[in-house]
């Protein structure tokens, strides 16, 4: 309290230093707990005004002192508004920036109001944005930030324990950044506020009545000392220069209130040293608040389930999907803390997510990684996709854990053909399933375009080389433009491969020109693709038109998902890596038997352009609102049949733990990724090809089994699509089941061979009996499974898989603490040894026999240096052996290797253990009979 003669000094210097010390402690404590925490303020200065430069230097110094990163962006004084807007847009969208200020004033040609409102309110640490001011004036809402000077005034009152409630407060001055917000803040603290301005009558009388007086008008000593009420609290915001010859500068700073008022007031701010120092301290406080708020929000994925209304009997997949309105994709992206620049919506419910997320979250730990695989299936499939989706729904909507599913994009071939789509089924689906199963975001179309551009380029090159001399080819490949020849960048790459270091085309010798222009294509290995089951294109003759001058040859089409470009997409880790891989793809052999690559054809850049959007995974959601990445869909036989590495990586970071923090049950979520076919194929390739390439370490493997498939492996009758199931499958038969369990036992053993634990998900059907489910459960546990759990996720969604989800959580938790995961073989081993390891260790073959052709190629690949890659076995999924009829758990058989091929871009060699169909055909009654559009509503009908 004051003594009789003078007011207590509301010392802004002392208080602001205290505030800064406290902020420095807060930042350092938060950093200790969360090493990735890095508050950052960006200040934009337009022009070079010296006073602005001084203020910015002060702010920079203050930030450094307490551990806030500070970036000063200085822009030219003649910058156009649109250019300035671009800068603001960039930092608004930069998730690493928590506060933005534009140092005012700006040059006259710029619009200050527009600038203030171009800073996003969440980063407006000056608190000038209309949204922040507006929220301040509403009692029910809170702004993101209060402007700094008013906040400093209030802080001073708080620090000196001055009560405000019920007092008469008079604020003189009503500017948007000082007077008005102070008045509102005092009102919010329950003072009765009178706001005065230049048109106010008899200010003196109002001031005389003030218990708390705040003056912010910029008029030197406007308030006379004797107006101030005895015992009042006086906050003098004004800063006015008063002539003073005794000072070096010739002036000194005085306030809007006569200094003698301190004889009457109980508390009063000095000028200078009162409100001034508080302003910068409050700016720092706003930045720290913003950074903490942002950190807390962005390190926790929000879980907002979309509840299901279950019906019995379970309606069709499309009826279930239509009854459930998905969340808008912008909402889902917000829940995942994606910055605006990190996702590009494609319509209302899907978006591409850019790989920039990986840069932003590079220091985060990955979440828990779960792969879903299956036993050797029946031709009907055992529900791997449904379990993948349902398990994610259970983790997310029922266990309330952040959870992502990563699945492959379905090919349109089967959608209109025989199998139907791949969005899961029943109450465990990706939605909207119509988009998922049709064009989605066009990735498969991009692959088709890229693949066929290569095909067109190879045939065209063969044609041109056959009809032109070396010099004619050279003149066309490197035409003179304005008297000068230039190599395209990609041509320099070819020259480098040929050992020619010249960069000027005119320096090449005739011999070098010949080597450069002649690819001498002999054997074309590249085929065309399309995403339709068009069996009559399996083998075709091309070049029939007279214009092709008799260059007729046989070739054929594959389904688009069988293109090597799809395998490249699935295994790539970044845009530069994808470009490298596309360039390495071998499209033909030369007359000398040397490989000709896409780099040699000169097409790599163009392919990368066609694929540049496809590299970004597509964000969708499950019926219960959990996020899903749909990306890539490589064939599971001639390729590795797993969804993309980039999708898994992004998802693992999004649900991962903040940098420097160990992954725990509390701070990290789950990524459930699906591996195609049975575990002998899809899971083996997941481990030895995908994880080897990605370096990611799975924590658990879920093996999906059905009673039906196990009975088939026990010797049950054939299961044929379209035909009713035999009685063995619809009645209890424990004997058949126990016999067939051998198949599941072997898959469990295989999972443990690579150091993982298996959780068996029994995808239960209504005809399965309690005794059957219990038998599988017991046998699986005895066989070493971590657990075995019946699920009912087709009929119940996530609610039908909570027990499974709990088992997965436990399994992951144990594995994270003590991971024993490893790949099965060293990729540097000879090709034959790698094949034999897989055949003997995973399939339990007794021997492997290689055809002459396979032997010859293995030698050739080894000579070419292609023997250091993993092996991608092309084998039937219906048996551990190469014979689909050999059910159960056969052993000691011979595995015949008919042929072997190389995918240099994807990065594997693929031995063929039987005939492979690479373009499915349409049956007599394809799915398309049932597919239509409701012409009234535009809804798609009949997709499953
Ligand atoms: P401003 O935008 O110029 O606003 C001045 C306000 O004072 C206006 O509302 C105006 O009323 C009112 N006013 C002017 N003459 C008046 C009079 N004769 N009687 C009653 N009201 C009168 O100024 P500001 O940005 O709010 O700044 C005010 C003062 O605070 C300046 O001295 C400034 O340097 C200082 N300041 C200090 C800090 C700090 O950190 N210490 C920060 C910001 C500002 P009308 O609305 O009717 O025109």
From TrEMBL:
State the Pfam families in the record: FTHFS, THF_DHG_CYH, THF_DHG_CYH_C
The Tetrahydrofolate dehydrogenase/cyclohydrolase NAD(P)-binding domain is annotated at 147-293
Keywords associated with the record: ATP-binding, Cytoplasm, Hydrolase, Ligase, Multifunctional enzyme, NADP, Nucleotide-binding, One-carbon metabolism, Oxidoreductase
Q: What residue stretches are annotated with the Tetrahydrofolate dehydrogenase/cyclohydrolase catalytic domain?
A: 10-126
GO terms under biological process:
tetrahydrofolate interconversion
Q: Which SUPFAM superfamilies match?
A: Aminoacid dehydrogenase-like, N-terminal domain (SSF53223), NAD(P)-binding Rossmann-fold domains (SSF51735), P-loop containing nucleoside triphosphate hydrolases (SSF52540)
Associated pathway? One-carbon metabolism; tetrahydrofolate interconversion
- Single GO term (MF): methenyltetrahydrofolate cyclohydrolase activity
GO CC aspect terms? cytosol
Subcellular compartments: Cytoplasm
Q: What is its EC number?
A: 1.5.1.5, 3.5.4.9, 6.3.4.3
Subunit and partners: Homodimer.
Membership in a protein family: In the N-terminal section; belongs to the tetrahydrofolate dehydrogenase/cyclohydrolase family.
Name the chain's protein: C-1-tetrahydrofolate synthase, cytoplasmic
């Amino acid at each position: 309290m004051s003594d009789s003669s003078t007011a207590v000094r509301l010392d802004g210097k002392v208080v602001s230093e205290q505030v800064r010390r406290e902020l420095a402690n807060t930042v350092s404590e938060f950093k200790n707990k969360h090493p990735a925490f890095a508050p950052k303020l960006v200040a934009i200065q337009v022009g070079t005004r010296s006073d602005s430069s001084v203020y910015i230097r002060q702010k920079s110094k203050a930030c450094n002192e307490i551990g806030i990163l500070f970036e000063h962006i200085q822009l030219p004084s003649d910058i156009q508004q649109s250019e300035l807007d671009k800068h603001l847009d960039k930092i608004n969208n930069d998730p690493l920036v928590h506060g933005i200020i534009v140092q005012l004033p700006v040059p006259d040609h710029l619009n200050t109001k527009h600038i203030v409102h171009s800073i996003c309110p969440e980063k407006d640490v000056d608190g000038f944005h209309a949204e922040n001011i507006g929220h301040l004036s509403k009692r029910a809402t809170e702004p993101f930030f209060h402007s700094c000077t008013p906040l400093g005034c209030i802080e001073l009152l708080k620090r000196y324990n001055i009560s405000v409630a019920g007092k008469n407060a008079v604020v003189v001055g009503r500017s948007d950044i000082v007077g008005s917000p102070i008045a509102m803040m005092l009102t919010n603290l329950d003072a009765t506020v009178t706001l005065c301005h230049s048109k106010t009558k008899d200010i003196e009388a109002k001031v005389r009545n003030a218990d708390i007086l705040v003056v912010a008008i910029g008029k030197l000593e406007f308030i006379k000392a004797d107006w101030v009420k005895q015992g009042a609290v006086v906050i003098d915001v004004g800063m006015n220069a008063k002539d003073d010859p005794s000072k070096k500068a010739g002036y000194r700073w005085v306030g809007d209130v006569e200094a003698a008022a301190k004889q009457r007031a109980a508390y009063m701010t000095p000028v200078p040293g009162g409100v001034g120092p508080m302003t910068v301290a409050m700016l720092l406080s706003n930045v720290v608040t913003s950074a903490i708020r942002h950190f807390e929000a962005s390190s926790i994925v929000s879980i907002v389930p979309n509840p299901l209304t279950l019906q019995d009997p379970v309606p069709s997949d499309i009826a279930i999907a239509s009854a459930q309105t998905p969340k808008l994709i912008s909402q889902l992206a917000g829940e995942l803390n994606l910055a605006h620049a990190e996702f590009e919506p494609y319509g209302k419910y899907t978006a591409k997510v850019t790989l920039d997320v990986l840069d932003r979250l590079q220091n985060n730990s990955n979440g828990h990684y779960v792969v879903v695989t299956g036993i050797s299936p029946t031709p009907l499939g055992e529900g791997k996709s449904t379990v993948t989706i349902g398990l994610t729904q259970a983790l997310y909507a029922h266990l309330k854990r952040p959870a992502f599913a990563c699945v492959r994009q379905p090919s349109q071939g089967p959608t209109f053909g025989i199998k139907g789509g791949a969005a899961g089924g029943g109450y465990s689906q990706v939605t909207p399933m119509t988009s998922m199963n049709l064009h989605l975001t066009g990735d498969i179309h991009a692959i088709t375009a890229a693949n066929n551009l290569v095909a067109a380029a190879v045939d065209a090159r063969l044609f041109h080389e056959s009809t032109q001399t070396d010099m004619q080819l050279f003149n066309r490949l490197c035409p003179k433009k304005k008297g000068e020849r230039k190599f395209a960048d990609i041509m320099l790459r070819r020259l480098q491969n040929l050992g020619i270091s010249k960069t000027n085309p005119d320096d090449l010798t005739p011999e070098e020109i010949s080597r450069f222009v002649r690819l001498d294509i002999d054997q074309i290995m590249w085929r065309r693709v399309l995403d339709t089951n068009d069996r009559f294109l399996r083998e075709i003759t091309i070049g029939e038109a007279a214009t092709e001058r008799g260059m007729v040859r046989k070739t054929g089409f594959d389904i688009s998902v069988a293109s090597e470009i799809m395998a490249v997409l699935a295994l790539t880790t970044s845009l530069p890596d994808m470009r490298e891989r596309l360039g390495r793809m071998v499209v033909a052999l030369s007359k000398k038997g040397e490989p000709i690559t896409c780099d040699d054809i000169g097409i790599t850049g163009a392919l990368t352009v066609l694929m540049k959007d496809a590299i970004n995974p597509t964000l969708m959601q499950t019926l219960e609102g959990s996020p899903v990445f749909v990306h890539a869909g490589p064939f599971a036989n001639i390729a590795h049949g797993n969804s993309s590495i980039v999708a898994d990586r992004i998802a693992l970071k999004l649900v991962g733990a903040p940098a420097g923090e160990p992954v725990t049950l509390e701070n990290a979520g789950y990524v459930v990724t699906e591996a195609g076919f049975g575990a002998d194929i899809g899971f083996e390739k997941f481990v030895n090809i995908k994880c080897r390439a990605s370096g990611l370490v799975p924590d658990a493997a879920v093996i999906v089994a059905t009673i039906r498939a196990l009975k088939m492996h026990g010797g049950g009758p054939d299961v044929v699509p379209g035909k009713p199931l035999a009685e063995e499958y619809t009645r209890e038969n424990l004997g058949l089941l126990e016999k067939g369990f051998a198949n599941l036992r072997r898959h469990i053993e295989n999972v443990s061979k690579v150091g993982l634990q298996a959780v068996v998900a029994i995808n239960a059907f209504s005809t399965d009996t309690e005794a059957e489910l219990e038998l599988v459960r017991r046998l699986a546990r005895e066989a070493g499974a971590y657990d075995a759990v019946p699920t009912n996720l087709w009929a119940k969604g996530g609610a039908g898989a909570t027990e499974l989800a709990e088992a997965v959580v436990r399994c992951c938790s144990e594995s994270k603490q003590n991971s024993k995961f490893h790949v099965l073989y060293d990729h540097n081993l000879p090709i034959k040894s790698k094949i034999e390891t897989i055949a003997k260790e995973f399939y339990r073959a007794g021997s492997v026999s290689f055809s002459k052709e396979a032997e010859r190629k293995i030698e050739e690949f080894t000579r070419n240096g292609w023997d250091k890659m993993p092996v991608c076995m092309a084998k039937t999924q219906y048996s551990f052996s190469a014979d689909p009829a050999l059910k159960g758990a056969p052993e000691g058989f011979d595995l015949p290797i008919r042929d072997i091929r190389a995918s240099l871009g994807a990065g594997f060699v693929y031995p063929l253990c039987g005939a492979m169909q690479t373009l499915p055909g349409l049956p007599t009654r394809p799915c398309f009979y049932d597919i239509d559009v409701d012409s009234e509503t535009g809804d798609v009908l009949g997709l499953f």
